[in-house]
Design goal:
single chain; about 170 residues; Pectate Lyase C-like; 2 domains
Length: about 170
């Protein structure tokens, strides 16, 4: 997709988001490798299977975007809003997610999320989810005890059952 066509799709998407006509961005399977989408408003956009390898998505709004199967390998997603985004099957290898907001999104658990750059906020969030697992395996319980002080810094800790699950897993 050339820059002119992409600009048209993004313009129509902005209209759609504001309720002034336009249409939702359908960028399924589109090759946007290396594209400069810095700060783009792609809320609720359909990016399934899109090639965004090495794309600049810094500060982009990808809230509720459908990124299933997208190639985000090496993409710059710093400060991007990925709240509620569906990342199932997305390749995030080497992507930079420092400062990104992934609350309520679907973080894929497969090899495609290896070597992702994250900041402490996201590492704490992932650690909190790991610590909240109800697993009574002795090695896991030992690991959870080590990880809990770090995981307690989770920004949504007040609504998270971390302590109750940890106590149950510890036998108390």
């Amino acid at each position: 997709m050339d820059k002119k066509e992409l600009a048209k799709v993004l313009g129509e998407h902005r209209k759609w988001l504001s309720g002034k006509g336009g249409e939702r961005a359908d960028l399924q399977e589109v090759n946007l490798q290396g594209a400069n989408l810095r700060g783009a408003d792609l809320q609720e956009a359909d990016l399934r299977g899109a090639n965004l390898q090495g794309a600049n998505l810094r500060g982009a709004d990808l809230q509720e975007a459908d990124l299933r199967g997208a190639n985000l390998q090496g993409a710059d997603l710093r400060e991007a809003n990925l709240q509620g985004a569906d990342l199932r099957g997305a390749n995030l290898q080497g992507a930079d997610l420092r400062g990104a907001d992934l609350d309520f999104s679907c973080w894929p658990l497969w090899c495609g999320t290896g070597h992702v750059k994250v900041d402490k906020r996201l590492a704490v969030q992932l650690a909190a989810h790991l610590c909240a697992l109800d697993c009574d395996d002795a090695e896991f319980v030992k690991l959870r005890k080590i990880l809990l002080p770090f995981a307690r810094d989770f920004h949504r800790i007040s609504a998270f059952p971390l302590e109750a699950v940890a106590r149950a897993g510890d036998g108390g």
